[in-house]
Amino acid sequence: MRRLFFVTALLAIVALSSNAQEVGLRFGGSNGLGGVAVDGVFTMGQFSRVHADVAFWDGYMGIDALWNFIYRPLGEEAFNWYVGVGPSTLIGNEFWLGASGEIGLEYRFKEVPLALGFDWRPTFWLIDDTNLGVDSFGLNVRWVFGSSYDN
């Protein structure tokens, strides 16, 4: 089982870093897990993107792939806000599957290719047990690549 986690983590990190316009870490809750997640953002257009995470904690691996269908600037500054939704899963001794929402605020530095964000992700778990988790807050620190930095 540990070998499966290692191979999956390695593949996820390679996939996130190969195509992502932003790659970094998410500190805090993810899928009900604590700790740190590998965080990536894939731009889908000017005002839309996919925000994906892979987290490991206490024998579980959590994966989120959230479509931020609203990604807008907040005034003329480098602040952006976003809202999204997508699937979430926990894989370990038990298997959990659900849908997460996301609302957040992000600051993109103009001088350095760095983005800092704070978000809240409530998750409605459907499988293995039906419940609502509302305690997933996270701090995102991401390195911005290429044309995504030029915005």
Structural notes for this entry:
The protein is mainly beta and 151 residues long. The protein has a single domain (2-149), classed as Porin. The chain is built from 2 helices and 10 strands, in the order H-E-E-E-E-E-E-E-E-E-E-H. It has an 8-stranded antiparallel beta barrel with strand order 1-2-3-4-5-6-7-10. A hairpin with a 3-residue loop joins strand 5 and strand 6 (95-108). The termini are far apart.
Give the arrangement of secondary structure elements.
Blueprint: H1 2-19, E1 22-28, E2 36-45, E3 48-57, E4 60-73, E5 79-91, E6 95-108, E7 114-120, E8 123-127, E9 131-133, E10 137-144, H2 146-149
Antiparallel strand pairs: 1-2, 1-10, 2-3, 3-4, 4-5, 5-6, 6-7, 6-8, 7-10, 8-9
* Helical stretch tally: 2
Mean pLDDT: 83
Low-confidence stretches are: none
Distance between the termini: 42 Å
Tell me the total number of β-strands: 10
As laid out across the biggest beta sheet, the strand order is: 1-2-3-4-5-6-7-10
In helices, the fraction of residues equals 10-25%
Strand content: over 45%
Largest beta-sheet characterization = 8 strands, antiparallel, barrel
What's the architecture, going by CATH? Beta Barrel
CATH level 1 name: Mainly Beta
Computed over alpha carbons, the radius of gyration is 15 Å
Structural class category:
mainly beta
Task: Quickly count the domains.
Answer: 1
Q: Which series of helices and strands comes N to C? A: HEEEEEEEEEEH
Q: Give the overall silhouette.
A: globular
Which fold does the CATH topology refer to? Porin
